[in-house]
């Protein structure tokens, strides 16, 4: 039985982690940690968690967890990775986004290269939503024929929800990205905030892949809204087009057109989400038990996705197509903040 712990209890995703353990047969939640004692005690009581700590290093030492689920702002990622490594923790499941700009991306990439044994995946639970899994399998099995074009979007910016939509492109088209051309606007999302999430208000990217597939990614107010979508975070979608038809998924519904036959349906996001969260954690257990069972949301895949984001930012600043792989330059967020704040 895998022993799991959670760091950070303030965000909704921490609650999603805890709720998922009602459906996880091979793991149990043994402890949580957070700096705010009042929230910590309430959370532990709500989910019947046996132990809680205000210092996660103490939690590592006492509980000796197999899996750490990280629900903190991105500026704490590398510190937690190193502490887990020092404590002998074998695996972490980390809230998105993985990073914010080039400096932390490069530091995490260096950590991963130096410590390949520790298993890290990023919390993009939409990959495991039952309805999306079914569509992903259809595409992988060739139901829509040869892939031609992918369109993905998110109602929130890249730091808050856009990485979900970018990851979705890779879930349906696992080829490597080869070039990015991007544009951004709006500096409100680049201003200092408590969660340390920074991204332009709107972004648009044209992405080329090594298999010839083209994709577009829209994040922010320029993204389309989806039927039944309420709060802005619920407006995520992806459409995948092939030589025999297409599939379209949103957080509340789906549709397919394959060989001239149309089908559609709805699903309930809250129900899909807890099941997706549980399946994502079960996949971590698989990976813990078998090195060959690589988690699809593994750190290397996340680093490649974040390279696309940094290429988008660099393209917007330089007004050039960015060929991948590339090494991003420093201070991208301050440069974007300055450029978007300028009246010119």
What can you tell me about this protein's structure?
The chain has helices at 12-20, 37-46, 56-63, 77-87, 102-114, 130-140, 158-172, 269-289, 299-318, 332-341, and strands at 2-7, 27-33, 51-53, 67-70, 91-95, 119-123, 147-154, 177-185, 202-209, 214-219, 236-242, 245-250, 253-258, 261-266, 322-323. By secondary structure, it is an alpha/beta fold. It folds into two domains: 2-123, NAD(P)-binding Rossmann-like Domain (Rossmann fold, 3-Layer(aba) Sandwich); 127-266 and 304-323, 2-Layer Sandwich (Dihydrodipicolinate Reductase, domain 2), CATH 3.30.360.10. A nine-stranded mixed β-sheet has the order 14-13-12-11-7-10-9-8-15. Strands 3-2-1-4-5-6 form a six-stranded parallel β-sheet, with helices on both faces. The mean pLDDT is 95.
Key structural traits:
single chain; 344 residues; alpha/beta; Rossmann fold; Dihydrodipicolinate Reductase, domain 2; 2 domains; nine-stranded mixed beta sheet; six-stranded parallel beta sheet; 10 helices; 15 strands; globular
